[in-house]
Amino acid sequence: MEHTELGVVHTKIDRADPEAVAELAKYGVATIHEAMGRVGLMRPYLRPAYPSARMCGTAVTALLQPGDNWMLHVAAEQIQDGDVVVAACTTESEDGFFGELLATSFRARGCRGLIIDGGVRDVTDLERMDFPVFSRAINAKGTVKATLGSVNVPVVCGNALVRPGDAIVADADGVVVVPRERAADVAAASAAREAAEEGKRAQFRAGRLGLDMYGMRGPLAGLGLRYED
């Protein structure tokens, strides 16, 4: 299974453990990114098509040709309940690859949402449906169905490598990719990070300064920071 494959659909993929994915869904993208060692983020130009969009699921990938959404229709057949479609393009394209009709098709298959390094349209309808989409552009320009890409091959979406079956989490802070074999460990690390942050939050509420809680005063003084009346 290679990123450069064209004209192939892989029908059998290994998905992240559903229980681990359900645990990941409890946490925000920032928490998961930090818990995983500050890796896995897609580029910040991938933004929610409407403000409340968020999703968590396992990746079905699509490699598209510019201005052509044929492979999204092919990908629909491979969707299982709980999947997220992650669509990349062989070269940059901001055409409107996806809209309300394809969202209706995806939802009927159990799809949790779409991440696409391209454009989408029918945003008002997507919001009404509460079908989460993260894209690089909103663009009314339509696409054709004329050239082959691939489905369920590794893709690079928003500068992040996504393999079929990896866990995908997206919210207002961005999109993060969790390798399928790390899903359970990252969920556990995210839970631990949340617990630690709650302790810090309580100290901040009580008025304690980060300067003292994080032991910052010595390093700052060492670099020459001084206080003057």
UniProtKB/TrEMBL annotation:
Co-factor requirement: a divalent metal cation
EC number(s) from the headed UniProt entry: 4.1.1.112, 4.1.3.17
Pfam families registered for this protein in UniProt: RraA-like
Alphabetical keyword list: Lyase
Keyword Lyase: yes
Reactions mediated catalytically: 4-hydroxy-4-methyl-2-oxoglutarate = 2 pyruvate; oxaloacetate + H(+) = pyruvate + CO2
InterPro entries: LigK_PcmE, RraA/RraA-like, RraA/RraA-like_sf
Enzyme kind, highest EC tier: lyase
Gene Ontology terms for molecular function: 4-hydroxy-4-methyl-2-oxoglutarate aldolase activity; oxaloacetate decarboxylase activity
CDD domains for the chain: RraA_family
Subunit-structure text: Homotrimer.
Family: Belongs to the class II aldolase/RraA-like family.
Function in brief: Catalyzes the aldol cleavage of 4-hydroxy-4-methyl-2-oxoglutarate (HMG) into 2 molecules of pyruvate. Also contains a secondary oxaloacetate (OAA) decarboxylase activity due to the common pyruvate enolate transition state formed following C-C bond cleavage in the retro-aldol and decarboxylation reactions.
UniProt cross-references to PANTHER family, sorted A to Z: 4-HYDROXY-4-METHYL-2-OXOGLUTARATE ALDOLASE 3-RELATED, BLR3842 PROTEIN
The protein's name in its UniProt record: Putative 4-hydroxy-4-methyl-2-oxoglutarate aldolase
